[in-house]
Structures are given as C-alpha cells and as structure tokens.
Amino acid sequence: QTLRFHFLDTKKLPKVLDAITGEIEKSCPKVIADGSKPLVAFLESYESDHVKATVTCHFDDVSPQSSEYKVCRQEVIFAISRALDVNGVELAIAAA
User: Fold this and answer.
1) Three-class secondary structure of residue 7 per DSSP
2) Which burial class, exposed, middle or buried, applies to 67 when counting CB atoms under 10 A from its CB (0-12, 13-18, 19+)?
3) Which of these, 20, 34, 41, 78, is most buried using a 10 Å CB contact count?
C-alpha cells in the first residue's frame, strides 16, 4: 500500500510508521508477523508534492483471488487509518 504524507508531517513519520506496523500486527490476525515475511512501513521518497511511504505485509494462507483476501486488505487499511488518527496525521491528496 502506497501512502502520501504532507511535508509538514515528516518529523512525525518515524512514530507514525511504527504505529502503522504495530496496529496492523495487533488487529489483523492473518498478517504474518513472525519475521518470515516482511511487515514494514517505510519512507520511500520525496516527491514534488508529498513524502511517499510504502506499507508491505503478507497474509498467512490467504489466496489473493479470495474474498478473505479482500477482507484482510480492508483490515489493513482500517489499521493504517487508526494509526494515522492516533498520531494526528492525514494523508496528502494527489496534486491535480
């Protein structure tokens, strides 16, 4: 999952990225969190209108074509949202 952050939030991002992975691990039971697959949120680059971050995780025994996969992805998105809310950070909107 790619995330776009405002430049003004850059100093908050180490804590935010840790909160994202922690919230995913806590609330998404199908996410592999034993270290055998990556569960990571990291800054990728400065873009012209935002700071780009990526969240990577993998699900245990869930087919990407299944309905269960869609539910798991939704759980991850909600977990990211909770982590952003707790840290008072909003995602940047794409420039037109």
Assistant:
1) helix
2) exposed
3) 20
Flag whether the pTM goes above 0.85: yes
Strands 2-5 and 40-46: unpaired
From CA 94, how far away is CA 96, in angstroms rounded?
Answer: 6
Instruction: For 25-56, give the DSSP string.
Output: HHH-TTB--SSSS--EEEEEEE-SSSEEEEEE
Rounded to whole angstroms, the Cα distance separating 73 from 13 reads 22
pLDDT digits (tens, 9 = 90+) for 31-63: 999 999 999 999 999 999 999 999 999 999 999
Give 42's strand partners. Answer: 54
- Report the distance separating Cα 64 and Cα 27, nearest Å: 20
Q: Tokens 């969190």 sit at which residue?
A: 33
Q: Furthest-apart CA pair in the chain: how many Å?
A: 40
> Cα torsion for 78, 80, 82, 88, to the nearest 10°?
-140
